[in-house]
């Protein structure tokens, strides 16, 4: 029995997971159209390679990756491209993004998909390329390109693979359902992932509030000798990568570092299935399981939905009552954000669409002054100082924000949940993080400009020095000839005569 450790802080909000009937999946009705953003991942946006009027098939690449940290986008079904333009997309800041709209023809015709005959015989480079071309990004909500995580070149290598089935946020049961319904596919994907990174141990992490999922995973894990299912007490946010590693391994990821720095790789169960489908079946990521829940729905549950499906159409399949809904949230109640336009699409990171009533999740109360109670610091799972970060974020003191490790904040919302003054702390942190990232980019641009300027100045100085050296050499030669009594005009005449005589001799 593996020893389980605790994390600092954490909270126990009401779970409300039974509402979405974990363990049951229904296919979402085919939508009238799909709206596919070219950025459904962390990194550079994909580049559209189709044009308005083009006919596409399911599984066809419609936008290709741009650079290393990027993934392509594929059509989930057959139809015609009807628009390529900026649209509202799910994002906490309300940003727009270039989207490819496809009007579906209802035939659901697909390109031919070909998997590998035996992935164990292939090189890691071939496997990574398959993962990259399949458009796989973290399906747990982070959206980081999976191929980049698998290509870790850390000195110590990866010794432990963790399949993170914690799903600690209230309401969401997508991972719970996937583990109950597709446990064997998860194990197949975990075996491939462990093979790719050289992990000797595979830990399948499940909170103890998911007994059915844990049992399904134990049954499936019997086929993989290195796999172990580990359950542990329910606490939010134990599903954070750094927090989960501490719970399972009693190891700390260094500030500013990533799990690979200590030889650990974390992947979501759905991501493991996506890797399995890409290598064995040759299928790209075009669908995902999403929890659709909230008391304003008549039929909440987990839906297998096409990427690009408008959120409104997804809600309608669950019997959405717009009059009773207070708002619609993309994600869960702790880390999600309100959707401002129901035409926004389901994307790769959409693990939940929550439509609560006003009584179910009351609107935020007015912010009051901080009373310095320290409850936020007690709840913070990253052992930060939320109160100080709040003050520095308001003051835009970037030096102090960096000194207090703002970038280690996982934006779990535990601090805001316990705050008696109802301060939206996470909003301040997100804004401050954006400022820090922009300042870092500006510093890189400034450093690059300075480097180019200094290189140009060095080149100009070298060229000037070379010209001066030539002038000095010519001057010295002239002075030497003058001192030797040579007549430069006569010398030139003699050279011309010699050259003419040589040409006549050759004739």
If you had to describe this structure to a student in words, what would you say it looks like?
The chain is of the alpha/beta class and about 500 residues long. The protein has 2 domains: about 20-315, Rossmann fold (3-Layer(aba) Sandwich); about 365-505, Fumarate Reductase Iron-sulfur Protein, Chain B, domain 2 (Orthogonal Bundle). The protein is about 35% helix and about 15% strand. It is built from 14 helices and 17 strands. It has helices at about 125-135, 145-150, 175-180, 185-195, 210-220, 240-250, 270-280, 310-315, 375-380, 385-395, 400-405, 415-420, 425-485, 490-505, and strands spanning about 25, 35, 45-50, 55, 60-65, 75, 80-90, 95-105, 160-165, 200-205, 225-230, 265, 285-295, 300-305, 330, 335-340, 350-355. It has a 6-stranded mixed beta sheet, with helices on both faces. The longest helix is centred in the C-terminal third of the chain and has 59 residues, at about 425-485. About 45% of the residues are buried. The model has no long low-confidence stretch (mean pLDDT about 90).
